[in-house]
Design goal:
This protein has 9 helices and 7 strands; from the N terminus they run ααααααββααβββαββ. The protein is of the alpha/beta class.
């Protein structure tokens, strides 16, 4: 199980996608969508969101696909970059991005990228919240009917609460990638 944000966080986004696709060929694996993948897919449909893509590290993704943008690309350059990116992204990568789901239920657990909105049944959560929610979710200490496993908000060490666990230790910046193993009702954090 991977919780998203595979791109935009360094110079090797394209290579990370290659690695994940290869892993998925050999192991039973579930890849969830993160807000960064959502932005990329949206960008290919709506070039006007280029500034958001850029704000979230998109220039590093462009570089990983062999494109060299200027530091502050003009509107014309943005349009050309998006068109070139659409051609440079290999079909297996497109299929990978299109196949990403926003949530996965397993027993007493719900896996999501960011979190959930309190008061809304888990089966009816909006994808936007599953990918983007932060403070409202993080400050909620009430039960969500499932134990939520999430990332999105980097923490110095896994943050284990009564209703959730945040395993995002900011690997892109810290080099620390957290693994969570669940066996029955036991959780092992590595």
């Amino acid at each position: 199980m991977f919780l998203g944000d595979y791109i935009d966080r360094g110079p090797a986004s394209s290579q990370v996608i290659d690695m994940l696709i290869e892993r998925g060929r050999h192991y039973e694996t579930i890849f969830l969508k993160g807000n960064h993948e959502a932005i990329l897919v949206d960008l290919l449909r709506d070039p006007d969101i280029f500034p958001i893509f850029q704000q979230y590290g998109g220039l590093q993704t462009l570089l990983s696909y062999g494109l060299v943008p200027s530091v502050n690309p003009s509107r014309e350059e943005q349009q050309a970059l998006i068109k070139a990116l659409a051609q440079k992204i290999p079909h297996p990568h497109r299929r990978f991005f299109d196949s990403l789901g926003p949530k996965f239920f397993c027993g007493d657990f719900l896996f999501v990228h960011a979190g959930v909105r309190a008061g809304i049944p888990l089966s009816q959560q909006k994808e936007e919240d599953l990918l983007w929610i932060r403070d409202e979710f993080l400050s909620n200490d009430k039960s969500f009917d499932k134990f939520i496993v999430h990332g999105r908000t980097p923490v110095p060490k896994p943050d284990i609460r009564s209703n959730r666990i945040n395993i995002d230790t900011g690997a892109y910046a810290t080099g620390i990638l957290t693994l969570l193993t669940i066996r029955g009702d036991q959780m092992l954090v590595i």
